[in-house]
Specification:
46% of the residues lie in helices and 10% in strands. By secondary structure, the chain is an alpha/beta fold. A six-stranded mixed sheet has the order 5-2-1-6-7-8, sandwiched between helices. Strands 3-4 form a two-stranded antiparallel ribbon. A hairpin with a 7-residue loop joins β3 and β4.
């Protein structure tokens, strides 16, 4: 089980009231929400391995070089060396180090790699896995990794952690008319304002799905631009032709990496906290006794 950690603690932050605070008044709603989220996932799914994948760089420079608008609207401050600073709610940013310390204290593997997003870590671990993989994320970008033959699916939280949409190829075809790899082509054609991806003007989700159904994949659509016998409308042909520079670079930006140089780590789901004294100290310091107890029980069960 691979966790898109930032996606999940963002959801926890907005899903758990900010009245949940430490004894000193510091909000810890994202921390408590994430720990309860993980506890419920462990309880319901009992994965052999569990990896909390992290954004060491939420806006990698190599993606920005290809499409400068990539996540540009979410930049709070540009930096000369290291990742740009992302706009984050004032009361969420201080909770992230607490989350990281808590994961380490429990012994839950936490993996991030400089120059890459959590999605890329997830893509690489998914590519390397020899057995079934469940990806837990609130980010639809990772639908591209769905693969029934290799038992790769996405668990997408709909309402808290109790209701998860199980995204497999049947669900993708019903909803979007594509399979996992086709979702990446669909996303880059239609664009994604939340990620600063412009897409092809005039090509929305339904048109993108129809084009992919007709021509197979992005390469097939590009070939159709130059084929006078293809059934592209004059407007579609013109817009796609004018978008060639974007279409040449967009796949590298949209598709998750599968070759990230990962550090050595132990993905095994712990049965007991790796650092019980630190877990106890965190519970006391931040008023997390209930969440810590629930996660500990889930791990031990």
């Amino acid at each position: 089980m691979l966790l898109d950690t930032a996606s999940l603690y963002y959801r926890a932050y907005f899903g758990v009231p900010d009245s949940v605070k430490a004894p000193d008044g510091t909000p810890v709603n994202a921390v408590r929400g994430l720990l309860d989220f993980i506890g419920r996932l462990v309880q319901d799914h009992r994965p052999d391995d569990l990896v909390a994948c992290m954004d060491a760089d939420w806006r990698p420079h190599w993606r920005v070089e290809l499409i400068p608008s990539y996540k540009a609207h979410r930049v709070a401050e540009e930096t000369e060396s290291g990742p740009d600073l992302e706009e984050t709610p004032d009361t969420l940013a201080p909770q992230v180090p607490i989350i990281e310390t808590a994961l380490d204290a429990f012994g839950i593997a936490r993996v991030g790699v400089a120059g890459y997003e959590a999605d890329d870590v997830i893509g690489t671990l998914t590519a390397r896995a020899s057995g079934p993989v469940d990806i837990v994320t609130g980010d639809r970008d990772l639908y591209q990794l769905v693969d029934d033959a290799r038992q790769r699916r996405v668990l997408y939280p709909l309402k808290g952690v109790g209701t998860l949409q199980v995204t497999d190829e049947a669900w993708l075809r019903e909803k979007y008319g594509v399979d996992g790899p086709g979702y990446a082509d669909l996303a880059l054609l239609r664009g994604d304002p939340s990620d600063g991806l412009p897409g092809v003007p005039g090509i929305g989700e339904k048109t993108a799905a129809k084009l992919l159904d007709a021509y197979g994949d992005l390469a097939g659509i590009i070939a159709a631009i130059d084929d006078p016998k293809s059934k592209l409308t004059p407007t579609q042909r013109k817009r796609l032709d004018e978008s060639r520079p974007y279409l040449a670079v967009a796949p590298k930006v949209v598709k998750v990496a599968s070759d990230v140089p990962l550090p050595a780590f132990d993905p095994a789901l712990p049965k007991v906290p790796a650092q019980p004294e630190l877990v106890e100290a965190l519970a006391h310091r931040w008023g997390l006794g209930g969440a810590v107890s629930r996660l500990s029980s889930a791990l031990h069960a």
